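Quarterly update from the structural biology core.
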Amino acid sequence: MTEPRTACQSCSMPIESGPYCAYCTDADGHLQPFAERFERMVQWQARRAPDASRAELERQTLDFMATMPAWKDHPELQARRAAR
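Predicted structure, tokenized:
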């Protein structure tokens, strides 16, 4: 019998257990810093939309991260969104 899957609270990737996937955690299982996750998520988005500008990729990433439980209230996310 398989256990129900859940979603990573940082990126929404399906996971078996815990709050975060292996891509969003460091070697000790802790959530990576915001700046690191933001840059990696921008890079992932760039592979999906290679013709998009960096500004558009950042906007899309910020909008997505704002919906995720791990980041929605993060001060750095709030500051970046306010600066737009």
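The chain has a mean pLDDT of 91.
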